[in-house]
Amino acid sequence: MERFKAVIFVLLVSCICRTLGQSCQGFCDIDLGACSCEPTCTSLKTCCTDYREYCVNTFPYSGTIFGGTDFVVLDATFNQSSQIICRFDDSIDTLGYVDDTSRGHCISPLLYETGWVSLHISDHGMRFDRVGSWLSVHSGKVDPKFKANLVNSTKWQYYGTPNVGGSLEMTWNTSLVRADRVNIELWGYKETGEPYSDNWQGRWEYLYSLAKHQPNSGSFSFVPKPAGNGFSSWELGSVRVSPSTYPDGTWNVQAAWTEDHALAWHLEEKFRQDSAAWALEKCLAWDLLEEELPNFLNEIIDCPCTLAQARADTGRFHTDYGCDIEKGSVCTHHPGSVHCVRAIQASPSYGAGQQCCYDKNGTQVLTADSIGGSTPDRAHDWGSPPFKKPPRIPGFSHWVHDVLSFYYCCLWSDNCKYYFKHRPSTDCREYEPPSSAVVFGDPHFITFDGVSYTFNGKGEYTLVTHRLLRIQGRTEPVNETSINATMLTSVAMENIRFNIIEVRLASAHNHLEVLQNHKTLSFAEQSWMNFDDSFVFCPTPTNVTVMFPSGAGVEVRLREGTMTTTVLLPEEFKGSIRGLLGNMNDDPKDDLVHSNGQPVQNYSNPEEVFRIGANFCK
């Protein structure tokens, strides 16, 4: 009864605080009038006093899709007796804990999606009134120092093939697992059900432990034995290091995971006796399955013809982390290539992907000429919304449908003809490079149709408007004493779902800030973020690229304190845009027109250009 009275008291106090507009408890992202719980309140200095207590930030804010990351809830305190429950994506609960400084911790769960997911935290399981978000990251994009490492991963994935044997070794940073002793567990991934049906499901499952109660020394080696008890049917998996205080296979505990990989080392004895014959049998079975599945090749985009085009088309293609010329990747699955890119967007109906690879001369490598050629993918490696189900599960679906079969047909046996029959390179015959327009300097404009002019208006102006996308720029005086000279200080982009991405010049003019729906994003941990309808890539504080489902891309660069913005639009936008960057119809004469429809006669006349620019002032 006493506990019940205490709960009633807390609820009454909460209601009173809400009525007075003084508490963010249950009101994150809302302006309460007397004070605010919106992300902008920090810069406006209008936050309610308990804003950070209930609208929480975490450190770290991101972790691998596999889960197991221990993160702390910042700026909030908990009672030592609190039982913390962390709810991710409104559906998955994990147990947290309170440390000896009264800070709350959560453990991230294994997810089947990437990007930002909702986070709600409760200290007794009754009310989840602390609200934040968590960034789930594709395992291939996670910094290696936050993963367990397969020493000589090639040996792990060729184990049992001719002349490959002996012991295997793995290492990890001991700080990733807060325990004196650990278990080394094998987990496997499978997809079941009829492809492209409602019952098509993907699942991870604990298989067995390689070792138990091992000292948390940061390394483990063993000589693998062929799997028994039917475990050999699991051909894709990951090794997990977790505290031995938990029973085998306990879900969503602090852990370090290896990359997902082909489980050659644990396959049945039959594989070790004749790996090529075993792989051929699998390859032929895959060949028959592919014959029955829908043809996805007709809905993927063509590759750029050259490496230069591929690297320039940032709205539609992005570097493949497994074959990156700038990072010296080995390009294991594409021998002979020096760089690959992936189509950013998955195909609409089948969630398929496109991969384009290039040799040292910048020429596209085709599978007709080389085993290392460009290959399309039935399942996009990075997944695609709404995620969670095949073939849209990031990484894992791609392994099942496009990578394991490459091992069967090409790497564990010499039967690539079967693989390339279903994964032929797409050439560049129908590839159309994007059109580009630029704003730079004080500020100078170059339209999509090549018109150059200078416009020194001050305010917010429409650069591009289209039914799928709107881009606005803000210009401000270069300095307080300058009368005529202005410069671009912010670019805001809004798509059809009203998701706003803004890139703006920081007050010190030494870096760029990125905001999503008015909330500042941090790229301290991850350079790549995906949202439901856009992607943001920020490899350095002076370099931001925003990509949209339409294939549009916006590059913002900071050079010597000045923003330069390049807008890239695919052919589909031609003739259907308006704004200070023209109308992209191959006719430079009508890029800017007066309100009466008459085109600008003299782009070097600042007064005439200013009058035109006023038409696009917001």
UniProtKB/TrEMBL annotation:
- InterPro entries in the record: AMOP_dom (IPR005533), Epithelial_Barrier/Signaling (IPR051495), Somatomedin_B-like_dom_sf (IPR036024), Somatomedin_B_dom (IPR001212), VWF_type-D (IPR001846)
Q: Where is the SMB domain?
A: 20-59
Q: Where is each VWFD domain found? A: 435-618
Subcellular locations according to the entry: Membrane
Source domain of life is Eukaryota
- Kindly give the Pfam families that the UniProt entry links to this protein: AMOP, VWD
- Which keywords label this protein? Disulfide bond, Membrane, Signal, Transmembrane, Transmembrane helix
- Keyword Transmembrane helix in annotation: yes
Please state every residue range assigned to the domain named AMOP: 275-423
What is one cellular component GO term in this UniProt entry?
membrane
Any signal peptide, and if so, which residues?
Answer: 1-21
What is the protein named? Answer: Sushi domain-containing protein 2
